[in-house]
DNA sequence: CTTCTATATTGACGTCCGTCGAAGCAGAGT
DNA sequence: ACTCTGCTTCGACGGACGTCAATATAGAAG
């Protein structure tokens, strides 16, 4: 929750609680494997991919991939839906958009002095 | 270097090298203290702040703040310039914009099936 | 029910990271 | 030259993180 009510980094200093919440999402993105997973899921046909599609790309064990997917899931960057045997993951575009909003300076207000 | 030539996460899977490079920047943002530092610098009058302005905000030692500033500096998210006694830090807006570009889905292409 | 496949969880191990105190460096002022 | 102040670097410690093998769970198929 509180996905899209983040105030931008510039303009006024963010609160410590705010910072903790946001840093968890950036931390989830701060790993090359997770970044590739996210990109693989987003780029996959239909906007979704099952774990088997992802695991074979990497030279990593199944549990490791599963762990990274969990981190992305807990950051609400992806969601997983079970359909029969397979679990299909897809990205949460609003989440990415929220982060982008956070970073974009709204440049006009920066030089206020 | 290679600041703004990042291809977006969606569209096609990013390369491992790409992912490593980008993850370093997100990792720098994946800490609440660094996020607050960035926001404090960006929000400070004139768009810049010296370390003394920053240190007094936190309940952390000087060396710790200096360490976090170094991480942000190496991620090219901020730059520091010495003017007399004080060192003034300011954010690199192009860097933030690059990250935002990376995250924004260019939504039309996502649902291709 | 049993087995097979797909994915998640657990527990352990090594490495990376945030934090501190102490020491170092660079300018400014006396 | 000496010192004072602002900031960084160094060395160390504890906790967090990425990885794996082993085990567990969930659904499908026989």
Automatic annotation (TrEMBL), chains A, B:
<feature type="domain" description="HTH arsR-type">
    <location>
        <begin position="14"/>
        <end position="111"/>
    </location>
</feature>
<keyword id="KW-0804">Transcription</keyword>
<dbReference type="InterPro" id="IPR051081">
    <property type="entry name" value="HTH_MetalResp_TranReg"/>
</dbReference>
<keyword id="KW-0238">DNA-binding</keyword>
<dbReference type="GO" id="GO:0003700">
    <property type="term" value="F:DNA-binding transcription factor activity"/>
</dbReference>
<dbReference type="InterPro" id="IPR036388">
    <property type="entry name" value="WH-like_DNA-bd_sf"/>
</dbReference>
<keyword id="KW-0805">Transcription regulation</keyword>
<dbReference type="InterPro" id="IPR001845">
    <property type="entry name" value="HTH_ArsR_DNA-bd_dom"/>
</dbReference>
<dbReference type="InterPro" id="IPR011991">
    <property type="entry name" value="ArsR-like_HTH"/>
</dbReference>
<dbReference type="InterPro" id="IPR036390">
    <property type="entry name" value="WH_DNA-bd_sf"/>
</dbReference>
<dbReference type="InterPro" id="IPR018334">
    <property type="entry name" value="ArsR_HTH"/>
</dbReference>
<dbReference type="GO" id="GO:0003677">
    <property type="term" value="F:DNA binding"/>
</dbReference>
<dbReference type="Pfam" id="PF01022">
    <property type="entry name" value="HTH_5"/>
</dbReference>
<protein>
    <submittedName>
        <fullName>Transcriptional repressor SdpR</fullName>
    </submittedName>
</protein>
């Amino acid at each position: 929750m509180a996905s899209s009510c983040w105030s931008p980094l510039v303009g006024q200093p963010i609160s410590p609680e705010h910072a903790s919440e946001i840093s968890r999402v950036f931390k989830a993105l701060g790993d090359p494997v997770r970044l590739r997973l996210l990109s693989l899921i987003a780029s996959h046909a239909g906007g979704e991919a099952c774990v088997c599609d992802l695991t074979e790309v990497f030279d990593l064990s199944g549990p490791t991939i599963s762990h990274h997917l969990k981190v992305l899931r807990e950051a609400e960057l992806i969601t997983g839906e079970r359909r029969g045997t397979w679990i299909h993951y897809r990205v949460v575009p609003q989440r990415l958009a929220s982060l982008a909003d956070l970073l974009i300076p709204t440049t006009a207000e920066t030089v206020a002095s």
